[in-house]
Amino acid sequence: MKSTYNLIAGTSVERLAALSDGVFAVALTLLVLDIHAPASAAIHSEQSLWLAIVSLGPHLLVYAMTFMTLGIFWVGQQTQLNHLARTDRSLTWIHLSFLFSVSIMPFSTTLLASFTTYRIALLTYWLNILALGATLFFSWICATGSAHVKPDVPPHVSAAIKRRIFIAQGLYAFGAALCFIDTYWSIGFIVAVQLGYAVAPRLPRLHRREVPPSR
Fold first, then answer.
1. Which of 126, 153, 129 is closest to 137 using CA atoms?
2. By CB distance 3.0 to 4.6 Å, which of 45, 91, 109, 162 could disulfide with 66?
3. Sign (positive or negative) of CA dihedral 71, 76, 81, 82
4. Rounded distance between C-alpha atoms, residue 131 and residue 84, angstroms
5. Among 50, 55, 58, 185, CA closest to 110
6. In whole angstroms, what is the distance from residue 149 CA to residue 86 CA?
7. In terms of Cα–Cα distance, which of 202, 185, 172, 194 is closest to 64?
């Protein structure tokens, strides 16, 4: 029996996950390569070295922000891939589009770090985040619609994945809108959102002690 190529192409979730890990690793590495140590010819004292390090502040802040951004989206994509039984050619290309957005994060990061006070640079950075969220959301919609999700995945997991992306993108959009007041407000708000999603500890639940019934 002959098989149509499009039905047999791009069906490996494992290969897609491996490629994703590689793209994320390269993107995260390229971020730090844009941060350069102060030129030794321009440093003549402890004070001048300190001032040169302080001047790297915007680059370090935007680098840290992007590192968290990529970390959050890596976790998000891996969460989806872990719940897939298989993929297909169309779904694989959606994830490749997601990885394209990952690959241009170093550019939007450098642009924002170099022009921190410019709204266009901040909005370009936000559009990069929007592309990441939109493709990741679309990939899950297509995965559930084409029955590629593992059959034992409960409905609340799918709802949680979509809700997390939708809320995060709403917060990022609000943060981007703050650039019309001040770009540093935008950066600060986006960092706060990322900390909330990435490193904020989960508050312990308070359990009430059961009081034994009186006899």
1. 129
2. 109
3. positive
4. 22
5. 58
6. 7
7. 194
What are all long-range contacts of 122-125, with beta carbons under 8 Å and residues at least 24 apart? Answer: 122/176, 122/179, 122/183, 122/186, 122/187, 123/176, 123/179
Structure tokens that stand for 48 in this block: 């001048």
Across-strand partners of 149?
84
**Two structure tokens written together for 9:** 């192409």
| Residue 103 CB contacts under 8 Å (≥ 6 apart), including other chains | 23, 26, 27
How many distinct helices (H) and strands (E) make up the chain?
9, 0
- Please choose, from the candidates 175, 88, 164, the residue with its C-alpha nearest in 3D space to the C-alpha of residue 125: 175
pLDDT along the chain (215 residues), means of 10: 59 84 92 74 73 75 90 91 86 93 94 91 95 94 85 84 91 94 92 83 49 48
Residue 197 is predicted with a pLDDT of: 82
